[in-house]
Amino acid sequence: MRSPHRTDDPTRRTNGGEYQGEGEGEDSCSGLVRVSHLPPGVLRDIALVWLADAVVGVSFGAIAVAGGLPVWVPVLMSLLVYAGSAQFSAVGILTAGGGPVAAAATGLLLNSRTAAFSLALADDLGRSWTARLIGAHLITDETAAFVLAQNGARQRRAAFWISGIGLFAAWNLSVLAGALAGSALGDTDRFGLDAAFPAVLLALVLPALRADSAARRASAAGAVIAVVAAPLLPAGVPVLLALLGLLAARRGPRRPRTATSGSAS
Fold first, then answer.
1. Angstrom distance (rounded) from CA 150 to CA 143
2. Phi, psi of 79, rounded to the nearest 5 degrees
3. Cβ-contact 215, 209 below 8 angstroms
4. Beta partners for 13?
5. Residue 71: exposure state from Cβ atoms within 10 A (0-12, 13-18, ≥19)
6. 203 contacts: CB under 8 Å, gap ≥ 6
7. Which residues contact 83 (CB under 8 A, 6 or more apart)?
8. What is the mean pLDDT of the chain?
9. For residues 146 and 4, what is the distance between their CA atoms, to the nearest angstrom?
10. pTM > 0.70
């Protein structure tokens, strides 16, 4: 008698022949996301970015309100735009007397890099249009970095949704807190809040810089380009130009292959 639980689909069986439900396979992108899907240590790194993002979010909310904007502006911007660098640039232009068109154009220019991220992460968001629409709003530099650092499809998907949802919540709650605090914090620069986020990102990329000479070349070239362009170009443009440093990663010397002992020559 044929078992009602039997399946003829070989892709839904484990190596031992037992039934494997959808979403339980190593390379499956369906099913529920669990913290246990993350490799050891990744959740700790994600939590550090949440914390750093919250600190910067408080700074952003306070700066926006202290600059004369109503509380609802940074809060609504964080919910709808959700792009830290673009938001800082837009608020800087608005508080300096610039128009909304210039602020929006600068924000779009700074956030254009996420178009490349969306192509790289599309398969990790999920298969439904709902998941892809929501996931597209959660794509940031940080979520992209965590996803691309994972190997399996299940780990990549877990890294995206766990880091993305937590980061979205941390950013928006902290911006609200900073906006409500308003000018009570005074000059936020004296607390060094603006340095917290870059410091955490630097700590996350240091292992890659130590292990990969191409990454070091690209980072050094990008830093030089950004520093040279900063006094000459509007805010945000030097960061985009720094991407030209990636060309340096392709110009490194090739190491000659050497035959190891015991290997075929």
1. 11
2. -75, -40
3. yes
4. 19
5. middle
6. 48
7. 107, 110, 111, 114, 140
8. 75
9. 41
10. no
Q: How far, in Å, CA of 144 to CA of 152, rounded?
A: 15
Owner of token pair 């892709």: 11
Mapping DSSP to helix (H, G, I), strand (E, B) and coil, where does residue 207 land? helix
Q: Which two tokens stand for residue 159?
A: 């890294």
Which residue type does 234 have?
A: P
Q: Residue 32 pLDDT > 50, yes or no?
A: yes
CA 186 and chain centroid, separation:
29
For residues 68-95, average pLDDT: 85
Q: How far is CA 245 from CA 7, 119, 193, in A?
A: 52, 21, 28
CA-wise closest residue to 50 among 217, 131, 163: 163
Asked whether 95 and 67 are in contact (CB, 8 A), the reply is yes
Torsion sign, CA atoms 163, 165, 166, 172: positive
257: which DSSP letter?
A: P
Q: Give, for 135, the enclosing helix (H) or strand (E).
A: helix 129-138
Read off the tokens for 116: 């490349």
Phi, psi of 175 (to 5 degrees): -65, -40
Please, which pLDDT band fits residue 187 given cuts at 50, 70 and 90?
low
Instruction: Write the CA distances from 46 to 41, 52, 198, integer angstroms.
Output: 9, 10, 15
- How many CB atoms neighbour CB 152 within 10 A? 14
Number of CB atoms found within 10 A of residue 74's CB? 27
Among residues 112, 216, 153, the alpha carbon closest in space to that of 27 is found at 153
Q: Which residues pair with 122 in a beta bridge?
A: none
